[in-house]
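G., before I forget:
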Amino acid sequence: MTSAAVPPPHLDAALEHEGQRVPVRVTTRGRLSLAVTFLGPATTFAAGTVFSRLVFERDGKEMALSRARLTEAPRPGAAGVLVFVDDVYDCAALVDEGQVRNLLAFFGELPLVLAQREQISTEFRAFVADLNYDLTVYKKFFDQQDRVFEQEPPTVAHAAQHALLARAGDEFFGYLDRMLDRLAELVQGFTPEQHERHGYYFRQQLWPFIMGSAFMQRTNLKPRGYAGDAQMMDMIYDDAFQGRWVFNKLMHKHPIAHPGAQAVRNRRVLVPQMLHAARVGRPTPLRVLSVACGPARELADLFKAPRDCAELSITLLDQDDEALQTALSTVKGLETRLGTRIEARVVNQSVRTLLKEADLAARLGRFHFIYTMGLFDYLTPPVARAVLERLYALLEPGGLILVGNYHVSNRSRYYMAYWLDWALYYRTEDEMLEMARRLPGASATVSFDDSRCQMFLRVEKPS
Amino acid sequence: MAARPMTRQLLTGRLERTLPPDWDLAKRVFDDSKRFFLEHGLDADEAYAMAMTSSELLENAVKYGDWSRDAAEQITYLAEIEGRAVTVEVQSPVADDPGALRKLDDQIQWIRGFQSPFEAYVERLKLLSSQPYREGQSGLGLIRIAYEARGLVDFYVTPDRRLAMSAVYQPSGLFP
C-alpha cells in the first residue's frame, strides 16, 4: 500500500503590483512570513519588489492585507519569500484558517493603557519609584554574589548561597515588610476603582521583579485560568525557597511566608483536626465531601492510620482535572504507606454548574462532613448562598459543614491584590453567619485560625 | 466624578420584576433600576453603572436564553441592597449545554482573576484586535460590567435549568 504525500496547507490569492493582480499560491514559511509561488505564465519579480496588497477571497468576501515585500525571489524548485511591510500578520493563521490576525492592531489602543497613569496619586508614584530603585539595588547586590558563587564547585556555591540567604534574607524580608506596611497606609481608604487603577500601575512598574518570583509569576499569569490552582497551593504548602538565584529565591519565599499563606497551611491542619473531633460517636464509615479540593494535601492528616481508611470515605470535587490528579496521587501514596485501600472518588465539575442537578444527592451521595476551603473566597453572595444551600441539603442529619473564607482584615490583603494580582471576596463574621441564616434548622458559628486571616463557618444540621 | 463621602449608609431594599423576553426590556428596566439605586443611597455615577449592568445582563438573557423550551418562561430581575453588597441578578432559562456553561464559567473566572478589570479589558481587546470580528462573540459585555461598573460577575445554574447571572458591587465607604 502506498500513500500520497499530503500537500501543505495553502492559500490561493493575488498580489497587486502597479494596478495588476498577479495570481499566487502562498504557504506558511514561518509565523511571520509566507512562501510564495507565482501562478501566472513566466512571471518574474526581483527580490525587493514591493506589492501594494495581498488579496484573497474568504466566504465570498474579498480580504486585503497591506504592503508586502518579496525578500527572496522564487528560483526553480524553490518558492519566494514574502514579508509584510506595514503590519505584522500571523501567517500561520492566514494560511491554515484563512483568518487575518494583525499582531500590531492593538497598537492603536495603547493610549488607553498609557492614560491609566493619569489618576495615580503623587505619593503612590513616589512609593513605587522608591520601591523600584531599592529592589534594583538589592537585586544587583544579590546577582553579583551569585556570579561569584557560580565560579565555585557546587557544594561550595550551595553553602555560600545558604549563608547569604541566612545573613541577608531576614534583612531583605524586613525591608519588604516595611514597604508592605507603607503600601497599606497609602491605599487604605481607596475606592474600588482607585485600588484597581493603582494595582494595575503597580504591577506594570514592578513586572520584572514580580516575574522573578516563581510564586508571583504563577499568581499573576494564572496558567490554569484562575488564581489558587493546585501548583500555587503546593508552593504554599512547601514553604521553601525556589529559583536558582538568591534574589529569585527571596522574592518567591517572602509572599509564601506571609500570614495569608500561613493561613492556608494552618487550615490544612485544622480541617483534619475538626473532622477527627467530629468523628467521635458517629457511625462508620463517615462520608466526607471536599468541595473545590485542590491538591488535597490535608488527606495526609486525615488518613493517618489504617483505621482511618476503614472509617472514612472521601469524595473529592474540583473543576480542575489537574488538581484532581494531584489529589489522587496523594491518595495512592497514602494507600502505599498505610498498606490499605482508601475509599476515595473524584468528581470533576465546577460548583457553579453542579447546582443544575435536580437530584444532587443521587449524583454525589449524602455526607456526614462537608468542607470547602478556598472556594467561597471567589463566590459572590448570591452564588455563595445557593452553593451553601445545596451543600446543606446533602448533609446527613447531625452532619457538619465547614466553610473557609478570608476575613476582611486579612493582613496579606494588599500584598495579594497589588503584588500577586490575587483578588478575593472578603467577608466579615456577620456576612459568614448571614449565609447560613436561611438554612432550615442550622446552627452556625464562626471561628478563626491562628493567623486571624482565615475564618471558618461551621454549620451543623440538627439530628 | 464627585468625591464620595468616607462613610455612608445604604438603605436595605429589593426591586423584583418578572418580565417577558423582549428586546425593549433592558431599556424599560434601566430607568426603574436607576431610580431604585438612587433612592437607596448610591450616588448618580454608581446608580448609572448599576442600571447599565442591569441592562447588560437583561440583554444577555434575551439574547442567549433558551426561549424554545417553554413559551411561558420569563426573565426574573432582582436588584438588592443588603449590607456591603449591591446585587443585580437576572435569571433566564438556559440550554443544557455543558460545553457552553463551561466556557461561561471559564470566562467569569478569567475576568475575576484580574485585580483590575481594566487588565481583563485590555487583554480582551488585544485578542479581539488581532482577530476578525464575529458578531456577538466579543465577550466584552461581562468585562464592561466588571470594568465600568466595578461589578463582580458570577453565576450558577438552578435545578430548574435557569441561569442566575449576577453582578455585585461593593461601594466604598461601607468597609468595616
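Chain A has three domains: 11-103, 117-255, 261-460. Chain A touches chain B through 56 residues (CB under 8 Å).

More on Monday.
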